[in-house]
Design goal:
It comes from Youngiibacter multivorans. By secondary structure, the chain is α/β, with parallel strands linked by helices. The protein has one domain: TIM Barrel, CATH 3.20.20.150. It is built from 11 helices and 8 strands. An 8-stranded parallel β-barrel has the order 1-2-3-4-5-6-7-8, surrounded by 5 helices. Helix 1 packs parallel to helix 11 and helix 4 runs parallel beside helix 6. The longest helix has 21 residues. The termini are close together.
């Protein structure tokens, strides 16, 4: 497995990327960084180049991006502007590919939230149709789109891993896969067995956090992690795992979380 960290979750800078923590992440020993794509895309060319240069200088690669769409976008409902969405996707995925990202996480809860009074099945179909159009854009940039099921408090569409897999199957794209986030899985009380039952061939990325507070995980006593880790092992998952969590002491939490991952997630795979 390769272990990374979503720096936007610990961002203190004005741009929201978290790039100010890149050197600390490298020192902690992580394999890669996960940066927020919407935040990268909205930067000016010079601002984005400064982020890229700092990334290069750090010696750690950006292998994944989260935050695919800005909160202001409408992906479902009566106000969808497909030309605008696809224009953004072309630019954003080109940026992600240019910095080396192999996976882009499609959670985007506010953007894909089905508006009140709008038919849920129609909103679902809009997302299916959108991902069918995004699939070749991702492919030409060497990227897999990782559908992220989110807890109901963040979105009313695609809340479980099983639903995420079904969405990927309905899209049927070569570059559309699924992410599992332990925090969301736990909050929605979905069994890790669903990962074992549906994950083989579909799972392309993992997010991890201690679900109590959504903070950096450090100990097996914090949560019932073992069934989840066993499920990943059961499908032979050996890909990327990103810590997507908050921290008030990143310099101390980062190496502790990495040790936790290496001690407990790689032993059975």
């Amino acid at each position: 497995m390769r272990f990374g960290c979503c720096l936007n979750m610990v961002s203190t800078g004005a741009d929201g990327t978290g790039i100010e923590n890149i050197e600390t992440l490298k020192e902690a020993g992580f394999d890669y960084v996960e940066l927020p794509l919407a935040e990268l895309t909205r930067l000016t060319d010079s601002e984005r180049e400064a982020v890229i240069e700092r990334l290069k200088a750090s010696g750690i690669s950006c292998e994944a991006c989260n935050n695919m769409f800005p909160k202001t976008f409408r992906l479902t409902g009566p106000d969808v502007r497909m030309d605008e969405i696809l224009s953004y996707a072309e630019k954003a995925l080109a940026i992600a590919g240019s910095i080396g990202a192999k996976s882009v996480v499609f959670g985007s809860g506010p953007a894909k939230m089905v508006p009140e009074g709008f038919p849920m099945d129609e909103g679902y179909r809009q997302v299916v149709d959108l991902l069918k159009l995004i699939d070749p854009i991702a492919g030409k940039n060497g990227i897999k789109i990782a559908i992220e099921p989110l807890r109901k408090a963040e979105c009313n569409l695609i809340n479980t891993f099983e639903e995420g897999v079904r969405l990927a199957e309905d899209v049927g794209g070569e570059n559309i896969r699924v992410l599992v986030d332990y925090y969301h899985l736990t909050v929605e009380d979905e069994s890790p067995e669903k990962v074992k039952n549906y994950g083989r061939g579909a799972l392309v990325h993992v997010h991890m956090a201690n679900p109590t507070g959504r903070i950096f995980p450090k100990s097996m006593d914090e949560s019932d992690y073992r069934p989840f880790f066993d499920a990943l092992s059961g499908i032979g998952y050996d890909g990327r795992v990103s810590c997507e969590a908050y921290s008030e002491g990143f310099r101390e939490d980062a190496p502790a979380a990495l040790k936790f991952f290496r001690d407990n997630m790689t032993q059975e795979v």
